[in-house]
Each structure stands twice: as structure tokens, then as C-alpha cells.
Amino acid sequence: MDQKILSLAAEKTADKLQExxxxxxxxxxxxxxxxQAVKGKVAGALLRAIFKGSPCSEEAGTLRRRKIxxxxxxxxxxxxxxxxxxxxxxxxxxxxxxxxxGPLLVELANEFISAVREGSLVNGKSLExxxxxxxxxxxxxxxxxxxxxxLSGEECKKQxxxxxxxxxxxxxxxxxxxxxxxxxxxxAEEVEFVVEKALSMFSKMNLQEIPPLVYQLxxxxxxxxRKSVLEGIIAFFSALDKQHNEEQSGDELLDVVTVPSGxxxxxxxxxxxxxxxxxxxxxxxxxxxxKHLKVGQQGDSNNNLSPFSIxxxxxxxxxxxxxxxxxxxxxxxVVKSFKDLQLLQGSKFLQNxxxxxxxxxxxxxxxxxxxxxxxDHVTQGLVELGFILMDSYGPKKVLDGKxxxxxxxxxxxxxxHACKLGANILLETFKIHEMIRQEILEQVLNRVxxxxxxxxSHFLDLLSNIVMYAPLVLQSCSSKVTEAFDYLSFLPLRTVxxxxxxxxxxxxxxxSMRDCLILVLRKAMFANQLDARKSAVAGFLLLLKNxxxxxxxxxxxxxxxxxxxxxxxxxxxxxxxxxxxxxxxEIMDSLRRCLSQQADVRLMLYEGFYDVLRRNSQLANSVxxxxxxxxxxxxxxxxxxxxxxxxxxxxxxxxxxxSLQEPLDYLLCCIQHCLAWYKNTVIPLQQGEEEEEEEExxxKDLDDILESITNRMIKSELEDFELDKSADFSQxxxxxxxxxxxxxxxxxxxxxxxxxxxxxxxxxxxxxEDILSLFMCYKKLSDILNEKAGKAKTKTANKTNDxxxxxxxxxxxxxxxxxxSIQSHQESxxxxxxxxxxxxxxxxxxxxxVQQLKETGHVSGPDGQNPDKIFQNxxxxxxxxxxxxxxxxxxxxxxxxxxxGKSISLLCLxxxxxxxxxxxxxxxxxMQQFLRALDVTDKEGEEREDADVSVTQRTAxxxxxxxxxxxxxxxxxxxxxxSKEALLLVTVLTSLSKLLEPSSPQVIHPPRPPKVLGLQDAxxxxxLMNLLFSLHVSYKSPVILLRDLSQDIHGHxxxxxxxxxxxxxxxxxxxxxxxxxxxxxxxxxxQAEKVxxxxxxxxTKLKGQVSQETLSEEAPSQATLPNQPVEKAIIMQLGTLxxxxxxLVQTALPSGSCVDTLLKDLCKMxxxxxxxxxxxxxxxxxxxxxPKNMEKLVKLSGSHLTPLCYSFISYVQNKSKSLNYTGEKKxxxxxxxxxxxxxxRETKPIPNLIFAIEQYEKFLIHLSxxxxxxxxxxxxxxxxxxxxxxxxxxxxxxxxxxxxENEEGTASxxxxxxxxxxxxxxxK
Length: 1324
Fold this sequence. Notes:
Strands 1-2 form a two-stranded antiparallel ribbon. It has a two-stranded antiparallel ribbon with strand order 3-4. The protein contains 56 helices and 4 strands. Helix 19 (360-370) packs parallel to helix 21. Helix content is 70%, strand content 1%.
């Protein structure tokens, strides 16, 4: 039969074929076709023949075709056919589909849909036919019966697609079904159906099947719905990430972890690649992505940024067109996130309302962590983002050329956080991705070398961390580092020191790099620029410190720790130590040459030698001999000659120019410290050994010389140095400059000898008498210099020189002076204690050291760069100062003797204030240790149980001590009140209060002073108020406090209407006539501004949430419920602020900054109210009207604020008018001009305020219409400010002006200006 059909089909006409086919029974044809296809015979030819004999023009032919289609589809689905035959059959069916009439196409399509919904498809091959059927259907113009109605072909297609998408899809055909739609012409609405269906299937599919589905969706998105596709993909993976993180951080007993981490990351990586590839082909998709993430940012940047979306954005940066846009978006997100965090941290009110969430910064670092799963497409974006953050938000240069050095605890500011995040991104990326290491290192070094003038400490820190992480890995990039060495002599000294310190671990691993550095340093040693020579010295000293010579003491005293994992080669093997010795001695040779260079270079050398010795004790001999020979050049060996030092030799005269050549005081200082170290460390170890005599000769020589200098310095008079009172100390003559230099040298030498004698004294009385004599010499010179400088009106001379005493010595000296109670020491210590001047000097030096620490992060002198030693000394000094201040109060001390200058107790307090802020700045993590050290009681036995006392409890104890002092001070007589001390006490309390836990019961109100006498001082009042606010904000919002204070201010200053008597409310004794304005007034206004800023932030957040909900079209009634507590809080805050402004607006404030600020803040208040009204405009339809408390707020603003604002404006204008008239008659034109300028400045914010009020009212009218609540019934509509020109008044004014011009030519323009406010007044 098949042969006959084929032969008939071969004829030209199809008539006979048709006749034959009609004779066959129903099942014959389908059976024949089945048999042929299954056997693998030529089913295609047979099918063609059947189609030829079944034209669609006849009904029978159409029906036959329909049956054949159904049969073929079942055949293909059965899976019994060979692949080629199945493909051929489908191909033929596709070709013939468009001949079908519409109704049959609908039937066929319905068959497919029901097969999909019932899940009866076996292999889905036949689905390839469905797009052709749907496309053919869309082309049919005639109306078709569908269901109960009649539809056109296009509408039928839409209905079919809708039915298909609303049904159930089998997991295994989702990809095929989605891909099928790309061949169907779809309208936007139909694309949306399909996309929604496919996205809803994500959660039901295996993870591995999602990337191909995403790919099909992206292909489909070219027809529309790009936004939905991207939103859906991002939302799904963000949720998956979140769930995955919760599982990992949650209970480890969970047996089922949904997805292994690696697999999830690989799938995400593939999807990101798919999306980036799609964006390259369709830029519209990229625009949609950026737009979607930008919109989410407006309300809350964390809402739709997630690790997945950030990784996606970073990958998109590889496309040139989107690079800047995306990086900019990420940069602003990061900073916005840190600003939000800062706002939240500063306000307990916000913390209670806003849940704590993860921040963009943590998400970015998570992306870095995830990128280990071969996300190479993300790394380039990460590196760019890291550098952009570091470049944009690094430390900035300030006026005097110093950079603002940031320390961990200070970096609470958003910019510093952002810079730190940039550095973390780069460091973590460096650790994970080898291929990018070279580039990161190169870029960091480029910035270090090329940005010499701007601060680059953050890049040097990053470099140091990179090197510490993997010195051996970096050997491959050593060429980059050695290239940077070539620029050393052109870089600033500070940069060179930090750069060399950062790369120092590399020098231990790479000999070639070390040799290269030495060559560069040797060249720099003889460069023209002074800085280059100083850099060379710094470099050589660093090398000496870090290359140990055999036999040196253990490095337990080493202050810079190298991590263990860091250097895997044994650099301290025997060979290396021998090599190091030759190498170090070579360097010592080079350094000796420096001793003939400028004073600055020598100074660096003297400051560095002590550290070298401490690290490399075998070099002691060489170093000490060098110092000894240097000292002999300036030492007078004859024992009876005075003075003992040749000061003339230390000064260089070149023509008229006189400069210091040898910093002799620093040389002696270096010798003294090295000698002390040598005696304490090396000599005890040599006791048992036989040593050569000459080895120790230098140490005895040095001791003798210092002894001799001490004795002869005590005998010397100032005349011996030619530095008595009659000498010339002016800075303008060469003799004066020379005398100044000599004076400073002598004072320095005295200080060094004081420390030397104290260190060897063993508390002998004679030594202490010597110390006092040396101090008297120092004091005389210091007094002369101060006196001369005072006359010359230049106080700078005395400020320049730092004290040469070491911090360790200062702490020992203070402890001896104030705390030493050992019986045998009392007699000798009484010598020093008898001199009040000396004790004051000791405390002053301690203050100077702490100030130096605050400004630079380290102190001068030995161990000045070692944070641990500094911390130890700080603890000791603080303990003594605290004891001295609390046991001998200022009042007791001052009543005894009236001396010039501050009392010792006051100096102690000043020291404590500086130390508390320095410790918070540099030693935040060691706070517990620091506070424990302050415990003055002897606590040997209590150490163990002491350890668990919290920082808050310890702080509270200290706070109580200072509170007591403040109370005593405030209770004192008015003439005894010391405002400086009060101010310092409040500053101390403020810095201590920062250590308290906000939730702890110790957050106490500052006590209300029992008397008002001492509270007239504005500065003290200001700092006490600031403390009050900072404490208040840490546990609740300060609005009620503001309201009380505003009532006090109103009571003291009176009302703008002079006839009104205001009752005085004494909530706070600190508010009185002298402090109410401007001090307290400006403080409360700035605080109100902060509250408005917080409220504004909350409103913006709510608006963002609303706009996102409308985008995602969720049921809004449920969506707004969680916002109710926030809305309520906003309305409460604004209500209380309204009463605060209600008081201030009625207060007769003095013109000036108070009025100005109040007008601006009122303007802000109305802007915030308007923002709230606009928020309710957005939500009022969905939430069903506006809440009752909002209506109350509007009513309150109408009755209590707006009318009063207008009367306050009149008050301000009347003031300026009266000022104008009095000014015109009596004062000189210049005075009138300045007064007028002030008036204009004050009245400038008035139009802004009026505009803000009117905007508020305008939006209220809108809200009234929308919410069907008449909100305007409480509003008195404001005066219309349009005006007509009254001719008669104008003539009169012009005539007056004419007369004025004749009288005085200058005053007329001011007069013209003045009339404007007056005219405005008349319109009211």
C-alpha cells in the first residue's frame, strides 16, 4: 500500500491519489505510517505523499491531515523513532502547519497545552511544532470560535498562551517551553505572562538547570520585559544566598544543607556570565539593570543590593559603556550605607525603630570571598572599585601641610570607613587571586611614587599588609619594588620611612633587592637635596635594625613583630649572621660619613642609634665608639675649664647666615640612652666572661665625661656661655640668632644631664641636689627667653623645641615625686619636692609628650615608636596624675600660695584630659587594660577577680570621682570658681562618657548644680550642655529636653510682645540671662536640626519602601502595616519639636546668629512637615485615609506655629526698621552700612521661610482633597503678598529721597534698601 501511495504521488496531478486515500479506512493510514516510521523506512516521503493527497481546500483532506498530525505527534513523543526520522517528521509537520484552517490550529494547540498540563509528554520533541502552530494562528484574519465566544486569530493565540502559562509545567520541559516562545511573535503582555511563569519555576528546579533557563529568558527578554527578567533573577539568587548563609551560620545539627556552597557559587558565576553576555548584545538590558538598582537606592540602598547583584554589577564593569556608571553607583551606595550607619549609631531613637541589617560593605567583602570559585569576571571590577574608594576617600591634606592621620577608633566617619573598605577589598582580592597580584602591587607602588605631595598613608598600610601576607610570593614582582626604589631620593622623608618599613620583609628574602636598595641609598647619601640624604640615613638605620649579627641578644625586645608564617627562609642561620655582620659594618661606615653633614641629618642618626643597639646588640662597640669620637670634638677635656662644652664649634656661620651644625644636646641624649641600655643589658651578661679591657673602655670614658660635664655645668654661670640677661636674643640680628641657638643647646644639655643623673642616682641626696642645680640653670635660661620673646611679641621661639626627656623617665620622675612612699627615699626626694617649679616642669613635660602623641601618633626619644611601651608609660603617668589631682584639689593648692601660671593640680587635670582622648584615639582595644591600670589601690591579690569587671563599671567609677570634683567646684564661692578647671572637668567627663554602654544604668544625668553662681561662664555652659545632649541621645530622643530648655529660654529673655508677662520655668539652672542667648539657644537649635535630619531620613526611607512596593505591586494594605510604629514616632517627634519652636518663636531673641539660625531651622521644620504630607499623599489611597495623630499634628502646626512665625517675621522686620531709623539720624554712614548689612543678612532667610510655609499649605490642600479630610480648617490662610502701587505714598517717598540726597549723598542708598522691609510690614 505504501508503494502505491508513493507511485500515485509521483504523478503530476493529485486526483488519483486523493481518490485512493479516500477509499482507505480510518485506521489504515495511521497504522501504515506508524509501521514505516518505526521500521526506520522512508516515512518522510510517505508523509509528503499523504499531505499532497489531502489538500486543505476539501473538508475530508483537512480532517485526514488533522488525524495524521495527531498520529505523528504521538509517534515522535513515544520515543520509538530514530532521531533523524523524528526530526524529518517534525520538519514536514512544521512546513505544512500554516495550510490548516484556524479552528483546527486551535484544536492542535489545545492538544499540546493539555499534554503539557497533564504532564503526558514523554520527550518533548514535538514541542518544536507548537511555536509554528501559534504563529500560523496569529496570521489568521477570520473570526474563530473559541470557548463560548468568537475571537480573531491574534486573540486566540493570546488566550492559548495565557492558558498554557497558567497551567502546571513539568520541571523537565520548562527550558524547552521557555525557549519555544522565542520563535513566536509576542506582544509585551504575552512576554510578561511567559516571563512570570518561567521565573516562578526557578524554585522548583534543580540548581544546575537554572543557568540554561536564565539563558532562554535573556534571549526572550529582547522581545520585552527586560526589567522583570532581571528583577526576578536577582531576587531569586539574593534570597537563595540569604538562606544559604543562614544555614551555614545556623545550627550545625542541620542534616540537610540545601545546596553545597561551591555548586551555588559556580551556578551564580555562570548566570552572571550569561547576563553580561546578553548585555553586550542588548545595551537596553544593561540600562534596565542600572536603572533598577538605582531606583532601589533612593529609599534604602540595602533593599535591593545583595552579594549577587553586586557581583553582577562588578562584572558589568567590563563593558566600557557601563563601567563609570556602575562604579559610581557602587561608590555612592557604599558611602550612603556608611552615612546611614553613622546616623544610626548616633541615635538611640533610630536604633529602636530601624532593624539592624547587613551593610553594603559586608556584601562586597562577601563577593570577594565568593570570587574564589573561579569568578574571574568579577576580579577586575573589584580592583577598580577598591582603588576608586581609596582614591576618593583617603585622608585629605589640611592647611599646614600635615595630613589628618586616621586611627582605627577615629575612623567612624563614612569617608574613612569607605577608604578602609577599599583597602580591605584589595587585600582580600590579592590573597585569593594570583593573576591580579602583579597589577594590584603595581598600582599601589605607582600611587606611592607619583603622589608624593598628597597623603598616601593608606596606600602604604595596604602595601605593608600585602607584603606581610606573602613576601615569598612577591619575589616574582621584585622588579616593580626595585623600580620604586629608584624614586626614593625624590620622595618625602615620611613616605620613604614607611615605604621601607613596609617592604622590609622582602629585603630579608631577596638579596638582589637588598643590594639594589643599598646602591640607591648610597647615591642618596650624597644627593643635593637634604631630604634625600635624610632618607638615606633612615634607610640605613632600618637595615641595621633588621639584619641581626651573630651573638646579638634575642629579639624579645624587638618592637616590630614579623608574623611567623611570613619568612620561610632561615635568615638567621650561621652564614647569614656572618654575612650580616660584614654588611652591617659596611653600613656603619657609610653612616659615619653622615656625621660631617647638616644638623638635620646628624639629628636623625642620633635619634636612630638607640633602636639599632636594642635590636642588634653586637653593634654596640661600633656605635658607642662612633658617638664617643663625635663627642670629643665638642668636649673640653681640661677638668677645670668652664664651660665644659665648645658651643662655638656647634654653630656654622656662612656670611650673614647662622645655623646649627651639631645638635649637641641630641648627641648627648643619644649617648646617655645608649649608655644606660648598655649598662642594664649587656654588662650583666658579661659579668661571668673575661672581656678585653678596651671593649669596656669606651663605656667608662663616656661615664667620666658625663660626670665631668655635670659637675662643670653646675659650676658654670650663664655669663660663661655669654647668655646672661644682657645678651641679645632678637631674631633679627646674627648675634641674637646665635645666642638663641646656644640657649637651646644649653637647655637641652641640662635636660639630658637631669635624666642621666636621675638614672644613676640610686636616690642619693647629692645627686638630687645636682639635678635641682641643673634645673635652675635650665629655668633661668627659659625665663630669659620667655621674657625676651614676650617683649618681641613672638612667642614662637619657645614653642619649637621638644623636651629631650624620655617618656619612660617622665613617668619614673612623676611617680617618684608624687607617689614614692619608701622610707629610705624620703630624705633625698624632699630636695626635689621642695621646688614647686621643678614639679610643675615635670608635669608640663608629661603634657608635652601626650600632646605630641595626639598630633603625630608617636613621641620623641627612645621607644617613642613602640606603641606598647608608650601605652605602658601612659598608664603609669595617668595613675600618678589622677592620684595627684584627686588627693590635692586645686582649691587647696591655690589657697596656699598665689603663683604665676597654672597650679600643678590644674596641669594634672589638663594632662588627664589629653591622655583620655589620646588613649581613645590610639588604644581603643586596650581600654580595659588602661582603666585597670588606673586603679590606684594596691591590687596584687585582687588581680584575678578584677579581670571580669567591665569597662563600663570601671569608667563609671572614674566618672564619679570627676563628678565629685565638679560638684565641689560648683558649690564653691563665686570668686573661687575656676572656669578653666570646670571646662576641663566637663571635657574629661565627655570623653569618659563615650566609653559607657548606652544601655547601662551608669548613663547618669550630669548633676544639677546646687548654685547658679558658677554658671555664668559661656564656654563651660556650652560644654556641659553638649555632654548632656550626648548622654541623652545615647538612650532616647532629646526632644522633650529641648522643649524644657526652650521654655527656660523664653522665660529668661521675655516675649516678643512686651506686654506679655512670661512665667519663668526653672527646669535647668544652667539657663540664665547670660547663657540663654546665644549659647544655649544656638545649642538647642543645632540639636533640633539633628532631630529634623533623623526624621527626614526616616521619611525618605518610608517613601523608598512605598515606591518599591508599588513597583512590585504587592497587596499594599499588608505592606503599610509594619510602618505604623515608624510613622507614629515621626509624628511624635515633630509634635514635640513644634512645641519647642512654638516657645522660641515667641522669645525676644537678640538679633544676630540666634534669629538667623531660628529662621533657617523653621524653614527646615516646614520642609520636613511637607515631606511627611507628601508621604501620606503617596500612601493615603492604599491605607484608607490618614491617621488621627497626623490630623492632630496638622492642627497643632496651624494653631501653634504658622501664625506665630508671621508675627516673629514682623518682630524681626520691626527691629531692623527701628535700627534703620535710629541709624539714619545719629550715626556715621559707615556704621549705618555695617548695621544694614547685618539686617539684610538676618532678613534673607525670611522669604525662604514664607515659601516653605506656603509649600506646606499647598500640599496640605492636595492631601485634603485626596483623603477627603478637611485639613485646612485649622489653617489661617496666610496674607496675600501681591501688592498694588499706591501713587500718593510713592510720591511722598520719592520726595523724601530727593531731600535726603541733597542733605547727605551717601545715606540715600541705604535708605532705599531699608524701606523694603517696612513696606512689607505695611502690607500685613
